[in-house]
Amino acid sequence: MNETIKTQLNHRSIRQFTTEKITDSTIDLLVDVARHTATSNFLQAYSIICLESKEKKEKLAKICNQPYVAQASHIFIFIADQYRNQQIAKEHHQDTAILHNMERYMSASTDAILAAQNVNLAAESIGLGTVFLGSILNDNQAVIDLLDLPELTFAVLGLAMGYPDQEPQLKPRLKKDVMFHKETYKRFDNYTKELVDYDASVTEYYDLRDTSKRVDSFTNQVSQSMNRKPLKRMRAKEDIESQGFMTK
User: Fold this and answer.
1) Which among 45, 56, 86, 140 would be 20 to 30 A from 245, CA to CA?
2) What angle separates helix 24-35 from helix 102-125, to the nearest 10 degrees?
3) Distance between CA atoms of 140 and 155, rounded to whole angstroms?
4) What is the Cα–Cα distance from 172 to 52, expressed in whole angstroms?
């Protein structure tokens, strides 16, 4: 086991940050890490928008409904970006209709997500605390307006970063038997029964983390998640289409 793997196995989300700011040189280094991430067909169909101003971070925190977002030193928003390649192709007098196909959205969003994970690992390896922000999807139009996104771009994922002001426990993960398959997909007759020990460890984790909150198990969380249907998040497909993706 090397230091990189130790960092990966020690991953935890940080939601409390000190007031110390990340330096410009460190931000530049993280951007360079993103730039060297693998990308589909070398099209590099993603961009990063960095939020540092108090005003922008507070607006994003309201969209995310997570006040701690505003306390981060910097926030990277990873953008699926076919706008840049559309403009390049037009400048070379090419038809760009293919960019509206679902496949091109998928490749762009994959590029963005790969870059996000690469940056996250790099940030953690130099002592920064991070938390991914899937909550930017709470209101896609508000994010589009906040970032002034053009057509053929879409904010896929956020990453808040800063110097950690907490050291949370490691969250227990699914056991290998139910998520790692060889050759074909393995099915279980009763997943709840198969995960009874894991449910117990998750319940203990939440109990130790914060005794004022409801103790919960993993299988119950999965089951109850079927009832979460926030109106704006349920229209993600329409929001992506409104940006010009997946329309052909």
Assistant:
1) 56
2) 140
3) 8
4) 32
Instruction: Please say whether the beta carbons of 166 and 79 come within 8 A.
Output: no
User: How far apart are the C-alpha atoms of 141 and 144, rounded to whole Å?
Assistant: 5
* Superfamily per CATH, domain 3-168: NADH Oxidase (3.40.109.10)
Tell whether the torsion through CA atoms of 236, 239, 245 and 248 is positive or negative. Answer: positive
Residue of 44, 40, 28, 104 lying closest to 78 (CA atoms): 44
- Whole-model pTM: value is 0.94
Smallest CA-to-CA distance from 143 within 126, 159, 155 is with 155
In a 3-state reduction of DSSP, which class is residue 43? coil
pLDDT in the model for residue 206: 85
Mean pLDDT to the nearest integer, 151-166: 98
Tokens standing for residue 66: 């997570």
H-type alpha helices, 36-180: 54-64, 83-91, 102-125, 140-147, 176-179
Task: Round the CA-based radius of gyration of the chain to a whole number and report it.
Answer: 20
* Residue 216 reports pLDDT greater than 90: no
Task: Give per-residue pLDDT as tens, 177-208.
Answer: 999 999 999 999 999 999 999 999 999 888 77
Q: Is the pLDDT of residue 212 over 90?
A: no
Element (H, E) at 49: strand 46-51
Q: Kindly report the CA angle at 105 between 99 and 110, in degrees rounded to 5?
A: 135
Domain map (residue ranges) of the chain: 3-168, 176-225
Question: Residue 8: which region, alpha, beta or left (left: phi > 0; alpha: psi -120 to 50)?
Answer: alpha
183 DSSP 8-state letter: S
Query: 219: which residues sit within 8 A by CB, 6+ positions away?
Result: 191, 192, 195, 199
